[in-house]
Amino acid sequence: MRREIDEGWIEEAIERYRRIESLRAELDEAARTFEVSVRSPDGLVEVFVTAAGAITDVRFLEPLATRTDAEVSRSVHAAVTAAADAARWAREKLHAETFGAYRRLAED
Predict the structure, then answer these.
(1) Pairing with 41, which of 11, 12, 52, 103 sits 20 to 30 Å away (CA)?
(2) CA angle 92-86-42, nearest 5°?
(3) Is residue 74 in some structural domain?
């Protein structure tokens, strides 16, 4: 039995693939440039992180001389952990904005 090839369907699939790849590149670029900041619960440390997860800056907002090593360590750990969560949140937000209106090929 001979199968017929639907050229229109193939062209549409190729165009859809190219569009998805273009959107993916836009998402990756946006994730590298979109930055959020978080602070440790005690307000000692502020961490800046991109949606891609790269920490771009760490700032101490109060003098460290009055803090113990353990306190500084806890503050840095809390801020970095919060930064990882913030990066994940930012990436999910960017993903939803980028692909939110894009219709799925097949609905579940």
Answers:
(1) 52
(2) 165
(3) yes
